[in-house]
Design goal:
The complex is a heterodimer of chains A (about 100) and B (about 160). Chain A has five helices and three strands, in the order ααβααββα. Chain A has about 100 residues and is an alpha+beta fold. Chain A has a single domain, classed as Winged helix-like DNA-binding domain superfamily/Winged helix DNA-binding domain (Arc Repressor Mutant, subunit A). Chain A has a three-stranded antiparallel sheet with strand order 1-3-2. The relative contact order of chain A is 0.22. Chain B has five helices and one strand. The chains are: A alpha+beta (about 100), B mainly alpha (about 160).
């Protein structure tokens, strides 16, 4: 599933505000814990989960579950395609702004 | 309302500018996470004791103790890094860190170690390694304090 304009790099999947912020956070780290992303974005777990699912369906984000002390933690990271799509999208935004 | 991404909805320059500012704010929010104080103390302690490997006698027992020490030291370093990652909830990406932030300390550390190696060879005094590792440990603690203060300011 992709909604990317190959000519400009503009990606409608990434452009949705919360998904853009998720990708922005994940672009500067290797992995981020679900709870940290949730806290930084200031959204509920269900809202974050919904947007992460869309990004996962697009192949942009992967999640890894780790259990420690009976507590499950979910780690998110941008895939190679996801990082490329995000960066192309940011470049498209800069083009639109006229940088 | 946020959509799941309908094609054809290209933003205006103002909307694109606002989206770029959102990106900057999201990334800046990560910089407001103060690293735990114990992490730098643990790293400093590990660096400070590292020269102990040089003082073991060149006997079978000494070599065995050195190997055990190196394995234990590596395991403790791994545990410290693992605890740090679990505590802060992020695995930093080195390539996302500005180059000068990585290279400047590395050049400083290298210069300190080379200087110590030269002095040890010239004066044949192993304690110089402990002075060098002590200086390095102190710098790690200072750097930790600076990073924590910076993070608290950005929070």
């Amino acid at each position: 599933m992709t909604m990317r304009d190959p000519a400009t790099g503009f990606d409608a999947i990434i452009h949705a505000p919360n998904r853009l912020r998720i990708c922005a956070l994940l672009d500067v780290v290797e992995h981020a814990e679900f709870g940290v992303v949730q806290e930084r974005l200031g959204v509920s777990a269900s809202v974050l989960s919904k947007h992460v699912s869309v990004l996962m369906d697009a192949g942009y984000v992967e999640q890894r579950k780790a259990v420690r002390d009976t507590r499950q933690r979910v780690w998110l990271h941008l895939t190679k395609d996801g990082r490329a799509a995000y960066r192309a999208h940011v470049a498209a935004l800069r083009d639109i702004v006229g940088h | 309302m946020e959509t799941d991404g309908e094609p054809g909805g290209r933003p205006t320059p103002q909307e694109a500018g606002a989206a770029l500012r959102e990106i900057e704010q999201a990334q800046a929010s990560l910089a407001g996470t103060p690293p735990p104080w114990w992490y730098f103390l643990a790293l400093a302690a590990l660096v400070a004791i590292a020269p102990v490997v040089n003082v073991a006698p060149p006997t079978l027992l000494g070599i065995t103790l050195t190997l055990v020490g190196v394995v234990a030291w590596t395991a403790l370093l791994g545990i410290a890094i693992g605890l740090y990652v679990r505590k802060v909830g992020i695995v930093p990406r080195v390539s996302a860190v500005p180059r000068r932030v990585v290279w400047l300390p590395m050049v400083g550390v290298l210069a300190l170690l080379i200087g110590a190696a030269v002095l040890v060879n010239v004066y044949d005094q192993e304690w110089i390694w402990f002075v060098a590792s002590g200086v390095l440990a102190a710098l790690i603690v200072v750097m930790g304090g600076v990073l924590r203060r910076k993070a608290r300011k950005m929070a």
